[in-house]
Design goal:
Rossmann fold; Glycerate kinase, domain 2; elongated
Length: 379
């Protein structure tokens, strides 16, 4: 028997690889099976750690400019090939880095994201996988681009700042100092939203309020993004503001697509390709996935459903484990998960269930019992 495991982290308890190892232990206590554990993430929080643990590589810690212009320490990953960097933009410009009292996307910048990219380029990386969820910004990516050598000038030919409030001042571009290595780089952007850059469904109107924007600020930012995109259209001849996903991370999706020729893809799709899960699934008898809580949001396309849909292309049976499940998790059955199981054995508090040893033992035991049933049915 061959079993392939690709389970998302049980946040606060087990990493993706720890959860996979726990399930493997349970299966091997019942079956003399070939069990393969793959890392899983969807491009959001935990992607760097998951891919480094599953694919090998190192974590790099550097100091960059934070969303409010402060110096912060952040990390990104470099895979074993030394050519591929894994970044989470939130590490440098995430909303968790801004005190609630200071939330205002007029004043935040993605400059630190550009500094991370520049550092990785100097380390020899030319391939980038970047998750852009959880931003505190609405600067259209101008901060990131400025860190990479792009200059945005006002009507007097002077450089503008790097925050969202500067978008309305942009009148022209200067590309003289752009890092020449960018031409050699490939950017895959994990982007799971489809919003355009501007308008009622754009970055400012949809995501601005959760970053601290009042209705008046939303209008200022939206007008700024429109001005920015018009200047870019005039100087670069690129009209991409209506492309789905350009509104992601306050317009950072637009910057990657328009200036860096990045591709905006589903986060889980990128990860599944990178870990080459399809190659292992082809010959598998069972595919195991899951996450901390299985619910209707899971069914809407989170990482376990990405695994299930891939497995169903090869008509494989898919089993999911979760720390907890809700009534509406039944929707997951409609999306390719044949059966799912909560790993809890006794009533306990969430805090107790999330303890490392408890979660690991519960996951191992649940996997063992499920495969005992499979063995009994097959014998």
């Amino acid at each position: 028997m061959k079993v392939v495991i690709a389970i998302d982290s049980l946040k606060g308890s087990l990493t993706s690889m720890e959860a996979g190892a726990s399930i493997k232990e349970g299966i091997l206590s019942v079956y003399d099976a070939q069990v393969i554990v793959k890392p899983l993430a969807d491009g959001g929080e935990g992607t760097v750690n998951a891919l480094l643990a599953g694919m090998g590589g190192e974590e790099k810690r550097i100091e960059v400019t934070g969303p409010l212009g402060q110096v912060i320490s952040c990390t990104y990953g470099i895979l074993e090939d030394r050519k591929t960097a894994i970044l989470e933009m939130a590490a440098a410009a995430g909303i968790h880095l801004v005190p609630k009292s200071a939330l205002n996307p007029l004043n935040t910048t993605t400059y630190g994201v550009g500094e991370m990219i520049k550092d990785a380029i100097q380390c020899g990386c030319r391939n980038f996988i970047i998750g852009i969820g959880g931003s505190a910004t609405n600067d259209g990516g101008i901060g990131m681009l400025q860190a990479l050598g792009y200059e945005f000038l006002d009507s007097e030919g002077e450089p503008v700042g790097s925050e969202g409030k500067e978008l309305n001042r942009i009148a022209s571009l200067n590309l003289v100092n752009v890092l020449h290595e960018l031409k050699e780089c490939n950017f895959k952007i994990a982007c799971d939203v489809t919003n355009p850059l501007c308008g009622p469904y754009g970055a400012s109107h949809v995501f601005g309020p959760q970053k601290g924007a009042t209705p008046d600020i939303v209008e200022i930012l939206d007008n700024g993004l429109k001005n920015y995109s018009e200047v870019v259209k005039k100087f670069l001849g690129k009209d991409t503001a209506s492309v789905p996903g350009t509104g992601a991370a306050g317009g950072l999706g637009y910057a990657f697509l328009t200036f860096l020729n990045g591709t905006l893809e589903s986060g889980i799709s990128i990860i599944l390709k990178e870990i080459k899960l399809e190659d292992d699934i082809r010959e598998a008898d069972f595919v195991i996935t899951g996450e901390g809580k299985l619910d209707f949001q899971t069914a809407m396309g989170k990482a376990p459903i990405g695994v299930a849909k891939l497995a169903k292309q090869y008509h494989k049976k898919v089993i999911a484990f979760a720390g907890g499940t809700t009534k509406d998790a039944i929707k997951c059955n409609e999306e390719g998960i044949d059966a799912y199981f909560s790993i809890l054995q006794l009533p306990m508090t969430v805090e107790e269930a999330m303890e490392y040893d408890t979660a690991r033992k519960n996951l191992t035991s649940a996997a063992a019992q499920v495969f005992r049933l499979i063995k009994a049915v097959q014998s």
